[in-house]
Amino acid sequence: MPSDKILAKKQAAVALLAADLKSAESVVFSEYQGLTVEQDTQMRHAFREGKLNYRVVKNTQLLRAFNELGVTGLEEVLTGPTAIAWSNEDITLAPRLVKKYVEDFKKMKIKGGVIEGALAPLDTITALSNIPSIEVLHGQLVSSLIFPVTSLAMTLGAMAKKAEEQGLENVKDLETGHASSDQEPAPAEEAAPAAEANPEEKVEAPEEAPAPATEGQEETPAAEESPAE
User: What element of type H or E holds 19?
Assistant: First the structure.
């Protein structure tokens, strides 16, 4: 039976580990057996550069630490030598970096993990590992925002070059295929006279005057209408 001093030391280690993991966005459990010293050193250096926490911890301490955090059901996951990697800032960082060295070294294996304080299956860890880093996502967002402007600038540049090759002064002349004229447009024809503008209006012809009587011939008065009988 461990002495009180040893027991207190273990309890302090569990409490310290629980405090470190309390703010973790994601935790990944991995099996690290088979790595060479050189590989282990290379991986740990990359994790430090990427601001990823990494530690080899006894399974009993991990179980107690996560029990303090309210995470249960890890007994089947935490078997054999276990290393943990976690990040307090980026939920994809631990899955992404651990997966990278699993693929590079072919000797490690991901067991499972904890995401935002809840037990996560291996499928969830794998899905998170395929998400690009925040920096890459920011770059993709910026590219998508500036692409329309870049595309417009390239199009206008191509049109200007084409106009120059055809000897045109203005890009808009590409539509007609010839240079624009500096002459003012010809004035529109003056309005037609009112009579032409309104052809429906007709001018009445004057009444014809009676033909004059010839010499030697008297005008024959019109026969008077006899009164009705």
Answer: helix 4-21
Residue 173 in contact with residue 180, Cβ under 8 Å?
A: yes
Bridge partners for 26 per DSSP: 87, 115
CA-based nearest residue to 54, from 41, 38, 65: 41
On whether the CB atoms of residues 122 and 112 are closer than 8 A, the answer is yes
Q: How far apart are CA 209 and CA 229, in angstroms?
A: 35
Q: Rounded to a whole number, what is the distance in angstroms from the first to the last CA of the chain? A: 164
- Cα 22 to chain centroid distance, Å, stands at 34
d(CA 22, CA 171): 63
So what's the pLDDT on residue 26? 93
What pLDDT score does 115 carry? 92
Between CA 78 and CA 114 the distance in angstroms is 12
- Residue 136, SS3 per DSSP: helix
* Coil/strand/helix, residue 49: helix
Q: How do residues 64-90 score in pLDDT, each as one tens digit? A: 999 999 999 999 999 999 999 999 989
- Partners of 30 in beta bridges: 83, 110
In angstroms, rounded to a whole number, what is the distance separating the alpha carbons of residues 183 and 27? 77
Closest CA to 120 of 101, 81, 100, 94: 94
